């Protein structure tokens, strides 16, 4: 892993709607929705090529918690309860520098599937059922 792939700074933006990563003084902002739909978890990516699961209804998702994992990754907890998958430094670097292409690809796949980024009543009910999972209040919320 190149040292250039490790961010100098990691900041959660106000409103928990985006993560800012700084590489060589260059600020890269990654929206929570983008991070969520490109989660490195098996639930999203599948266990093999072609098994990816299109994530829909994530437009309102926010980042509830950030947790360093050793010296190599971040664990991100989202407001929809999703908290699996580790964002290692090379993957975060890829997301930061390929954001435009990856976001355009996601929007194209949503359109082709006839799906929506806007959460449905079913999405909201599933989130409520999953409960709040910020890790015991580490996000500063009250449970």
UniProtKB/TrEMBL annotation:
Domain of life: Bacteria
Originating organism: Neisseria brasiliensis
Leader sequence residues: none
Name of one Pfam family that matches: GBBH-like_N
Domain called Gamma-butyrobetaine hydroxylase-like N-terminal: residue spans: 11-93
Name of this protein: DUF971 domain-containing protein
């Amino acid at each position: 892993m190149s040292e250039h792939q490790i961010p100098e700074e990691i900041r959660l933006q106000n409103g928990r709607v985006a993560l800012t990563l700084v590489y060589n003084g260059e600020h890269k902002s990654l929206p929570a929705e983008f991070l969520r739909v490109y989660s490195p978890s098996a639930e999203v990516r599948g266990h093999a090529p072609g098994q990816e699961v299109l994530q829909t209804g994530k437009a309102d998702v926010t980042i509830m918690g950030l947790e360093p994992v050793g010296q190599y990754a971040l664990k991100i907890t989202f407001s929809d309860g999703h908290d699996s998958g580790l964002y290692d430094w090379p993957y975060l670097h890829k997301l930061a520098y390929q954001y435009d292409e990856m976001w355009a690809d996601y929007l194209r796949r949503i359109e082709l599937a006839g799906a929506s980024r806007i959460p449905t009543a079913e999405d909201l009910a599933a989130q409520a059922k999953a409960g709040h999972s910020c890790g015991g209040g580490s996000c500063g919320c009250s449970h």
